[in-house]
Amino acid sequence: PYYVSINQNLFLEASLHSSDPMLELFLDTCVASPTRHNFTTGSYAIVKNGCVKDPTYASYYSPSRHTLRFKFKAFQFIQSNPEVYLQCELVVCRAFDYSSRCHQGCLQRSKREASS
Questions:
Q1: Alpha carbon 81 to chain centroid distance?
Q2: How far is CA 9 from CA 28, 33, 74, 75, 116, in A?
Q3: What Pfam families does this protein map onto (predicted)?
């Protein structure tokens, strides 16, 4: 466990351990949950489908495509344990492949039209 106070900036770094310099990382989804076993019900999306959902989120420059750096403010779920669990999904892409998921960025899901 890593202990932080509420509203303290929490800095994270994810690294790809590969000797291939032509690979890069992309943060697709990062979700917080009050339990370690369920990241869907009662969870909170910090980043979803490459779209930033938390207003305290910020990404940071990294000198390597193999490393992602970002931060958000620590919080606690209301009426829950003081623990917050984090699950992030990263995508590995070929660098400079502009059709890859890494270069698509935020993917907004289009809403379906309700039929009458």
A1: 22
A2: 21, 18, 6, 10, 47
A3: Zona_pellucida
What pLDDT, in 10s, does the model give residues 26-81? 999 999 999 889 898 889 999 999 999 999 999 999 989 999 999 999 998 887 77
The residue assigned the tokens 């909170």 is: 44
Angstrom distance (rounded) from CA 44 to CA 41: 9
* Eight-class DSSP state of 79: T
Q: Which residues contact 112 (CB under 8 A, 6 or more apart)?
A: none
Chain-centre distance of CA 59, in angstroms? 10
Q: What are phi and psi of 103, to 5 degrees?
A: -100, 0
Strand order across the beta sheet in which 67-73 lies: 9-15, 67-73, 58-60
